[in-house]
User: Which sequence fits this backbone?
């Protein structure tokens, strides 16, 4: 197995983690996914593991079997369930503690439910863009009208207060256009967008990114799932397609669905600042951001980022982005 059978990340590595089961037994696992945290038994097969887990996720409750070819705690179970449009919550306070303090030795146990059973939370959409990209952003916006009633577009340019603009498919006043100079700081631009949100949650998409409408419709219940577990940030997989070809940099999780009070940090390769407590975020696997790239952009991207923030441009990522996806 080269990629994780749960989240598809190619981040499998050795581990000394163990799982403790209700009968008191304790089992060690030799490998772990550094992305989602699932544990793998020696010789585990990806298809066998996923088929087993998917069957277990179909019921009303989950209790990790000592015989499963994998191990996981409730924190990882919550992410795995979202791949099937389901959620997981603690059965009792002990499980609640395990959810809030991953990665626990306690074997995953939880109540399972369809995410559609949750009361959805309103989610704003924020889009930072360059002036040259604005027409394309507006043309693509109608696809998101099914799930959000609040859109803020922030253009890199001279400061401009938010103005309401009419966009087909959205009610009057739903879409606003503002501007501020990027100033070589992507996190500052994202934070300015966060401040424009009129809902408690905001998804941010770049001008060269897209989200399928069905994925967007699932965001309000993902936000509800997060609130139920005390999380404030949700990561979505991103498919980087260079000249239409899926890149090996996948799932390239982007923590773009956040409570509006969450701040981003980093002039480039910006990410939510959770105060060092990564447990306030989790990965959702029910859909992905689509990222369109050209070879020219990939070649120039890291150089530009390195100039903006020396030492953090990730020049090594260029090779990986240009390499086609390997299962």
Assistant:
């Amino acid at each position: 197995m080269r990629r994780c059978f749960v989240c598809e990340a190619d981040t499998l590595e050795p581990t000394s983690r163990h799982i403790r089961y209700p009968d008191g037994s304790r089992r060690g696992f030799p490998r772990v996914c550094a992305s989602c945290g699932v544990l793998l038994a020696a010789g585990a097969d990806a298809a066998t593991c996923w088929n087993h887990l998917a069957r277990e996720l179909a019921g009303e409750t989950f209790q990790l079997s000592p015989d499963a070819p994998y191990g996981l705690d409730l924190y990882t179970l919550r992410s795995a369930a979202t791949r099937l449009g389901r959620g997981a919550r603690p059965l009792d306070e002990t499980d609640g503690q395990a959810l809030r303090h991953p990665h626990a030795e306690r074997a995953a146990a939880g109540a399972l439910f369809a995410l559609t059973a949750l009361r959805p939370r309103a989610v704003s959409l924020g889009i930072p863009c360059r002036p040259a990209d604005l027409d394309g952003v507006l043309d693509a916006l109608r696809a998101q009208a099914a799930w959000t009633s609040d859109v803020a577009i922030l253009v890199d340019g001279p400061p401009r207060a938010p103005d309401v603009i009419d966009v087909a498919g959205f009610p009057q006043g739903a879409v606003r256009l503002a501007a501020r100079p990027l100033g070589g700081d992507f996190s500052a631009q994202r934070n300015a967008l966060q401040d424009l949100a009129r809902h408690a949650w905001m998804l941010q998409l770049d001008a060269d990114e897209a989200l399928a409408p069905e994925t967007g419709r699932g965001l309000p219940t993902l936000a509800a799932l997060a609130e139920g577990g005390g999380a404030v940030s949700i990561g979505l997989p991103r498919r980087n397609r260079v000249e239409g070809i899926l890149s090996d940099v996948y799932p390239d999780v982007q923590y773009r669905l956040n409570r509006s009070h969450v701040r981003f940090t980093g002039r480039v390769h910006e990410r939510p600042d959770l105060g060092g407590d990564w447990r306030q975020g989790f990965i959702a696997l029910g859909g992905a951001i689509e990222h369109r790239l050209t070879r020219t952009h990939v070649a120039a991207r890291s150089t530009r980022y390195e100039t903006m923030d020396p030492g953090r441009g990730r020049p090594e990522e260029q090779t990986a982005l240009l390499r086609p996806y390997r299962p």
